[in-house]
Design brief:
The protein has 134 residues and is an all-alpha fold. The protein contains 6 helices and no strands. The chain has one domain: Cytochrome Bc1 Complex, Chain D, domain 2 (Orthogonal Bundle). α2 packs across α5 and α5 crosses α6. The chain is elongated and about 75 Å long. Bound molecules: heme C. Heme C binds next to α3 and α4.
């Protein structure tokens, strides 16, 4: 048998036995693209399309420590920041609403998008991890 053929067989076998939880590069790219759209629809009006937010109103998401903290990001999107009330100069409360109406897949994709865009590394979150945090 030619070596090439044997190598092909081995790689097909590896593909078939690869654990399904591991995201392929294409899955990750798709997730980032979906996340970009979902971010624009749901987060951009406050945090702005460039993620810098608005001084004194909406925090910048350009924060590498924050964008490496999977659990905190999932929890922030699901629950918002209703506990942590800050009053602006004009006395208005700056709160982030719960965004738990988003699907698990959309939340995972948004986290992939923001971590890929403004963090050190893309954070892979599975829809199951979001579901478990609900
Ligand atoms: C209505 C405006 C609004 C929308 C929409 C919104 N946010 Fe926020 N977000 C805020 C505010 C205000 C805070 C700061 C709350 C506080 O004082 O802790 C915040 C905080 C955060 C934080 C924590 C920042 C930090 O430094 O701790 C993250 C992460 C975040 N938002 C992500 C998102 C994502 C992702 C979306 C879309 C799914 C989103 N936000 C939608 C207003 C918003």
């Amino acid at each position: 048998m030619p070596v090439n053929f044997i190598l092909r067989l081995i790689s097909v076998a590896l593909l078939l036995t690869a654990p399904s939880g591991i995201a392929s590069e294409r899955d990750v790219r798709n997730s980032i693209a979906l996340g970009a759209l979902a971010f624009a629809d749901n987060c951009g009006k406050c945090h702005q399309a460039d993620g810098y937010g608005e001084e004194g109103l909406y925090p910048s998401l350009h924060n590498t420590a924050l964008l490496a903290d999977k659990d905190l990001l999932i929890k922030t999107v699901l629950s918002g920041r209703m506990g942590h009330v800050e009053k602006g100069d004009d006395g208005t409360e700056r709160l982030m609403p719960s965004m738990d109406f988003l699907t698990n897949g959309e939340i995972a994709a948004i986290i992939a998008f923001i971590s890929n865009s403004w963090g050190d590394d893309v954070l892979i979150v599975t829809p199951e991890e979001v579901q478990d945090a609900r």
